[in-house]
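Record 1 of the preview.
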Amino acid sequence: MLEVASRAQNFLNVDLVLVDGQFDSKWIKAQLEPCLIHDQRGFGFVASGRLLRPDWKKFARRVVKAGRKTEGLLRALKLSPQSSVVDATAGLGVDSLLMASTGAQVTMIERHPVLALLLSDQLQQIEQEANWRSIAPRLSLTHSDAVTAFDQLQGQPVDVVYLDPMFETGSYRAKVSGNMQLLHKFSEPPSEDEQHALLKSAMQLANKVVVKRAAGAPPLAGETPQAVSTGDSVRYDIYTLYRSVSV
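->
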């Protein structure tokens, strides 16, 4: 864990604070410079007076009740207990938890070392919890950029790749949450070239690729999907193996 924390610290040039107590909201709000914290709840990232911590345990009820009727993501993915899915832009890992609730094996990929640290920490925590023992073994984490990880996964059985790249500025209909504001510090929307490379590599890995997009945003890389599953503020563009993707 300390090795991952060190990579994050070097990447962001932030201070790593290790204490045996809670950080109260007053302390957090006073921190204008980014820093990593560690307390009895694990690692967290603080910047601009806000705390970013995935805190998977608070999603337990949602994960237990998750299904295609309640989760648009699961309607688009159509996973089964025999499925193998790659969450190529894991972020805070909530989508990965929902995928694992179906019984599918989920590979989380996260390129940013701070987010990879937070995900690794959460995964270690739920591995120790009896209520999560059916979910935890279905989750694995790879710290890498997506395209590199796809190359390493070639030859392994992957049924679906899920892509949730950062939305472009102005594409949100609702007010952006505090967590999303902090996530913008870690990741920018992919360039046009990056979009093409990401989609092409994903299509080379799996028979099906599902891309989460803001409801009014253009499709990733300008490629028209074969099917679309819509929600109130987001949609899921669905691509299959039998569609060419231009470069």
